[in-house]
Amino acid sequence: MHEKYGDFVRTGPREISINRASAVATVYGSQSPCTKSPWYSHVSDDKTKTSLNSTRDPDVHRRRRKAWDRGFSIKALATYEPSVYSKVNVLASQIRARLNKPIDMSTWTMFLAFDVMGLVGFSEDFHQLEDGIEQAAIKELHQQMLFLGILKPSPWILTIIGAIQGLVGDYGQFMTVCTDRVADKKKKWAVQTEEVGEKVPKDVISWLLKAIEEKDPNAPPGNQALNEDCRLMMIAGSDTTGVTLAHAFYYLAKNPSKYKLLQKELDNAVGTNPDQFTNDKLKDLPYLEAVINETLRLKPAVPSGQPRLTPPEGLQIDEVWIPGDTIIVLPQYVLQRDERHFPSGSEFIPERWLDEKKNLVKNDEAFFPFQQGRYGCVGKQLALMELRAVIARLAYDFDLAFAPGEDGVSFDADSMDTFTFTIGSLNLVFTDRTRE
After folding, report:
1. Is 377 annotated as a binding residue?
2. What does the pLDDT read at residue 311?
3. What H or E segment, with its residue span, contains residue 399?
4. 3-state DSSP call for residue 17?
5. Hey, how many other C-beta atoms are within 10 angstroms of the C-beta on 163?
6. Diameter of the chain by CA atoms?
7. Gene3D superfamilies, per this entry (predicted)?
8. Res 153: pLDDT
9. What's the pLDDT at 273?
10. Average pLDDT along the chain
């Protein structure tokens, strides 16, 4: 669309898609006058009944974000790290039990992502990795994400459907699971034995409950808001990570020479002792970070971008003035593949993030996989911890290739933009690592 019509394309009566890197900070930056679009009101316009992500009032969002930030602080992340690595160990064990046999990597990365978020979110393990079975509520969530994506341009339809009992279909199972988990966590938090000093939260929901207990003005403003926050955490913290991991292994299977370079870096970093894998260790490995960045560039978690509303006085972006109260969106999938910013933009080249001489990153302003500014992803560092841990462990332990009859073409071509990506099967074969 943008190749044919240019950087500014009117897609509706008051909607504009913008493919301009210079617009990123103007639209999404911390000083942006833009606010979230009406799409975010599909749950409710009542600020006491929406999640952090659906909160459109900038001041209310800023306050509520503070409570979430505590749940993803450096201290909190250190508490969650053992849960992440315990699940990575289970995934590695399950793959080892299936060596030399095709496995659907999309399924297993989703198992891991939701299991981790259950532990990090409210200290509950879904055991999907151990059982090899997707829970019914999570299965229905994936089916409903397709529905959400189709109706993204018409949020008013989502509002009507959500208000009519029975029309949400089996998504109600997922809503009930989240509500029940919050209720159970409330009881446990209330009776938790106090040790020295105050109670110490061990998961994200406990940090929000702590804020409520302390009557913190930044706390979720009601029970429904807390329940919606739980659903937000499960969807945003699981679906996106699972999809990104599947995409990473697709690109590594497609580019075996890149996989070998990654394995070499890991060997040099830890030798014969993979127990040295920690987030602090892995985050300093440049090629691993480059693989992750390149995956996120090619397959951003929210490919079509997040819609914003221009201020009443309008907005100037370079030579173009946009009227007030106009919905604008910057499609990340398009921007992050634009040859003006990333030469050979559709190719998987991790080295572009390492070698400035090759000049394969001409404008890093066009790279914003976790958004930025006040609405930037609160769970970014947890997501990166998971991506590093899984990719590093599996690359260190195993060689991989496409399964017989699989070339990844349909996996890549048939993935759907349903706000996040909806992906199909990716059949890979893992084998015992052959070390040179």
Report:
1. yes
2. 98
3. strand 398-402
4. strand
5. 10
6. 65
7. Cytochrome P450
8. 58
9. 80
10. 90
The amino acid at residue 205 is: I
Nearest to 201 by CA among 217, 219, 178: 219
Cross-strand bridge partners of residue 420: 418
Partners of residue 417 on adjacent β-strands:
421
Q: What is the pLDDT of residues 139-166, one digit of tens each?
A: 777 666 665 665 555 555 555 455 544 4
Question: What distances in angstroms separate CA 117 from CA 83, 84, 375, one per listed residue?
Answer: 9, 9, 21
CA 42/CA 36 separation, integer angstroms: 12
For 299-310, give the secondary structure using H, E and C.
CCCCCCCCCEEC
The architecture (CATH level 2) of 2-432 comes to Orthogonal Bundle (1.10)
DSSP string, 251-304: HHHH-HHHHHHHHHHHHHHHTT-GGG--HHHHTT-HHHHHHHHHHHHHS-SSTT
Percent of the chain with pLDDT over 90: 73
Find the helix or strand (DSSP H, E) in which 91 lies. Answer: helix 74-96
Q: What are phi and psi of 8, to 5 degrees?
A: -120, 115
C-alpha angle 220/224/227, rounded to 5°?
A: 80
Q: Which of 278, 196, 243, 231 is nearest to 122 (CA)?
A: 231
Can you tell me the mean pLDDT for 392-408? 97
Reduced to 3 states, what is the DSSP secondary structure of residue 343?
coil
Tell whether the model's pLDDT for residue 171 goes beyond 80: no
Q: Which residue has the tokens 């090619």?
A: 298
d(CA 395, CA 413): 25
How far is Cα 90 from Cα 115, in angstroms, rounded to an integer? 11
- Who contacts 26 (Cβ-Cβ below 8 Å, separation ≥6)? 32, 34, 315, 317
Exposure pattern of 74-87 as b/e (b: 16+ CB <10 Å)? eebbeebbebbbeb
Domain spans of the chain, in order of start: 2-432
Buried b (16+ CB within 10 A) or exposed e, 238-268: bbbbbbbbbbbbbbbbbbeebbebbbebbee
Strands 15-18 vs 327-329: parallel, antiparallel or unpaired: parallel
Which whole-number Å values give the CA distances from 416 to 150, 154, 241, 423, in the listed order? 10, 18, 16, 7
> Which secondary structure element, helix H or strand E, spans residue 8, and what is its range?
strand 8-12
pTM of the model: 0.93
**CA-based nearest residue to 240, from 386, 368, 348:** 386
387 neighbors 248 (Cβ within 8 angstroms): yes
Q: Token pair for residue 95?
A: 């793959």
As given in the structure block, the two tokens for residue 27 are: 């639209």
